[in-house]
Design a protein that fits this description.
Layout lengths: L3 H11 L5 H18 L9 E14 L17 E13 L17 E7 L7 H14 L11 E10 L4 H16 L10 E7 L3 H12 L8 H10 L1
Antiparallel strand pairs: 1-2, 1-5, 2-4, 3-4
């Protein structure tokens, strides 16, 4: 169970977010601050990209729960939330469990792990690993490996009073218009990418886009084992 003190500490450092975009930027700053203050392997860690795609609706508190409420796998309750998926791109591999970067943020990651997970950096991830399989350790690739992670993602509305108030106002306006808000799902996409990353990715992809990878060793081995 997350205590109110944890949430208050996050707000004291980053301010009370008035909307989901502000919460996303605060989360980026939180992870970057961990890298700036670390003295171990995470020293200098920073976020190169953070994207989420989430929708409103009630969620069970079986694995995580709003502030001050214990989670319950055996007898879960339902609370208003935004739920979906988040993708994270880091400057380098984490020194400890990457899930720990979300500790103390009241933003909850669930199932997932390393990889592109059909996310915004699929193309650069696939291209880099094709090059890696092609050359193995014979040469050092001229572009850093994309360090990608993705998880299911939950934001409990009652943890963020100003965000909850914002969506309550939208619900009221829709009700005045005759919209059944109890059936309405609101979608939200947040996108952050460090300056220059998109251009650098595009240049690398274009450089190797015309290469035929059919002769790569992985494919040859697959043909042998499938005979």
């Amino acid at each position: 169970m997350i205590s109110k003190r944890v949430r208050d500490r996050f707000v004291a450092q980053h301010g009370e977010p008035a909307n989901l975009d502000e919460l996303g930027r605060a989360l980026v700053d939180h992870i970057n601050n961990l890298g700036a203050s670390s003295k171990g392997r995470d020293k200098g860690q920073r976020v190169l990209g953070l994207v989420w795609n989430i929708s409103s609706g009630e969620q069970c508190n079986s694995h995580n729960s709003p502030v001050g409420i214990p989670s319950s796998f055996s007898d879960p309750e339902r609370f208003p939330a935004f739920y979906g998926r988040v993708w994270l791109r880091l400057a380098k591999p984490p020194g400890w469990s990457v899930n720990d970067y979300f500790e103390g943020t009241c933003c909850h990651v669930g199932s997932g792990g390393g990889g592109s997970y059909d996310g915004p950096w699929d193309q650069i991830y696939e291209m880099w690993h094709k090059q890696h399989r092609r050359w193995r350790t014979r040469i050092k690739l001229d572009y850093p490996e994309p360090i990608l992670y993705s998880w299911t993602f939950t934001i409990w509305l009652q943890d963020w009073p100003l965000i909850e108030k914002h969506y309550s106002k939208l619900d009221m306006l829709d009700m005045i218009k005759g919209v059944r808000v109890d059936y309405l799902k609101r979608n939200h996409t947040f996108t952050y990418e460090a300056e220059g990353i998109d251009a650098a990715d595009g240049k690398y992809i274009q450089q190797y886009a015309e290469i035929d990878y059919s002769f790569c060793r992985d494919n040859l081995l697959n043909e042998i084992f499938n005979d």
